[in-house]
Design a protein that fits this description.
The chain is an alpha/beta fold and 438 residues long. The protein has two domains: 6-129, Enolase-like, domain 1 (2-Layer Sandwich); 143-432, Alpha-Beta Barrel (TIM Barrel). It has 14 helices and 15 strands. The strands form four sheets. An eight-stranded mixed β-barrel has the order 5-6-7-10-11-12-13-14, surrounded by six helices. A three-stranded antiparallel β-sheet has the order 1-2-3. Strands 4-15 form a two-stranded parallel ribbon. Helix 1 (67-81) packs across helix 3, helix 5 (177-197) packs across helix 6 (217-230) and helix 10 runs parallel beside helix 12. It is globular and about 65 Å long. The N and C termini lie far apart (59 Å).
């Protein structure tokens, strides 16, 4: 008997980091190995993402239950995988896609499909007695990523008056991943001290970063620069900055306020046209060591993205998230139009591992970078930590160095670095070799 054959599938409803239900699946193989995977959930979601199936029962979990998705795994999708070889990842995922039969996984839910897709990969790796990063990436997998640590939260991720959703530090100058984690923790501690000195709250948002009330978004950047210096590091040399404005939320806020075609920084009341947004980001990137901009414009304003990339894409990473939603067809358009130079990879945006790997491959072949990303509603699952090493992406986005749902990924990466030994290479500044930072 093939020890890698799928023998049993089970799913249950568990909780994510926001206390909302999500799907966890376990796949057991005939040889005794098993794999477990839990699916994350986003708050700031793109309109073109695969469908996350929720029960919408108002008297249970405020309508956010996932019992139907769990039932779909246990009674419909899982039984169809029995007898399949867990190492045949593409066959498994194509089977799941075919069973659902919709372009956006709406029938059975992307959360149901993804739980099985990832659990199969984990089970296969365990059956072969291989670490997941080695199983997915082969013998050449050795590159540790630069983290995007979201240390100040705003937008929909926090109940403060900061409109930009994420302010991130990237320790490009560190000599190793383990050291880069230490550097970030020290800057995070310095930031906490500065906020306390100013009488500001040090409560944390969804992704573990602080969520203080500040006078404007620029004050958040100034505070970060001060925290980096106070911790004994130098901006540009040791740390660079990254932003996720989540501009689609601003675009929708403007439309709701009767200002269609504009962007409203709704927490401060500032209104900008698309052209003004492009100028704003260009000026901000001149004044601060910002190396990466994610979702700086609305999710379907392709011409604006193209204009921004043409203006500053030679020196700033322009990352498509809501614009591209890890979807190969939308990435293909971005490649043709040069709308971005980087792609955010979120597994639950597309719904299977195979499609996610195709998105990464397409981006890399186009000369784009990829950033492997968590969601704001996370679990302790560390799949993406192994994935970023396997794919050699060089960048991971998984929150601040606080909350166990975030630190679990950093801890896993430190363990991987130790296991790799002298073959481990920390991406550092080389993660941005495609940019002209001179």
């Amino acid at each position: 008997m093939n020890k890698n054959q799928i023998a049993h599938v089970d799913a249950l409803e568990i909780l994510d980091s926001r206390g909302n239900p999500t799907v966890e699946a376990v796949i057991e193989l005939s040889g005794g190995a098993s794999g477990r995977a839990a699916v994350p959930s986003g708050a700031s979601t793109g309109a073109f993402e695969a469908v996350e199936l929720r029960d919408k029962e108002p008297d249970r979990y405020l309508g956010k239950g996932v019992r139907q998705a769990v039932t779909n795994v246990n009674d419909i999708l899982g039984p169809q995988l029995i007898g399949m070889d867990a190492t045949a990842q593409r066959d498994i995922d194509l089977k799941l896609i075919g069973l659902d039969g919709t372009p956006n996984k709406a029938k059975y839910g992307a959360n149901a499909l993804l739980s099985l897709s990832l659990a199969a990969a984990v089970a296969a790796a365990n059956s072969l007695d291989m670490p997941l990063y080695r199983y997915l990436g082969g013998p050449a997998a050795h590159r540790l990523p630069v983290p995007m640590m979201n240390v100040i939260n705003g937008g929909k991720h926090a109940g403060n008056n900061v409109s930009i959703q994420e302010f991130m530090i990237m320790p490009v100058g560190a000599p190793s991943f383990t050291e880069c984690v230490r550097w970030c923790v020290e800057v995070f501690g310095s930031l906490r001290a500065l906020l306390k000195q100013r009488g500001l709250l040090t409560m944390v948002g969804d992704e573990g970063g602080f969520a203080p009330n500040l006078s404007c978004d620029e004050e958040a950047l100034d505070t970060l620069m001060e925290a980096i210096g106070s911790a004994g590091f130098k901006p540009e040399k040791d740390f660079v900055l990254a932003l996720d404005p989540a501009a689609t939320e601003m675009y929708e806020a403007a439309a709701s306020a009767g200002e269609p075609g504009k962007y409203l920084f709704w927490k401060t009341g500032v209104l900008r046209t698309g052209e003004q947004m492009i100028d704003y980001w260009a000026d901000l990137c001149k004044n601060y060591p910002i190396i990466s901009l994610e979702d700086p414009l609305a999710e379907d304003n392709w011409a604006e993205w193209q204009a921004l990339t043409a203006e500053i894409g030679n020196r700033v990473q322009i990352v498509g998230d809501d614009l591209l939603v890890t979807n190969p067809s939308r990435i293909a358009r971005a490649v043709r139009e040069r709308s971005v130079n980087s792609v955010l990879i979120k597994l639950n945006q597309i719904g299977t591992l195979t499609e996610s790997l195709a998105a990464i491959d397409m981006a890399h072949r186009a000369g784009f970078t990829t950033v492997i990303s968590h969601r704001s509603g996370e679990t302790e699952d560390t799949f993406i930590a192994d994935l970023v090493v396997a794919m050699g992406s060089g960048q991971i986005k998984t929150g601040a160095p606080s909350r166990s749902d975030r630190t679990a990924k950093y801890n896993r990466l430190m363990r991987i670095e130790k296991a790799l030994g002298t073959s481990a290479v920390y991406a550092g500044h080389s993660a941005f070799d495609h940019l002209n930072r001179g």
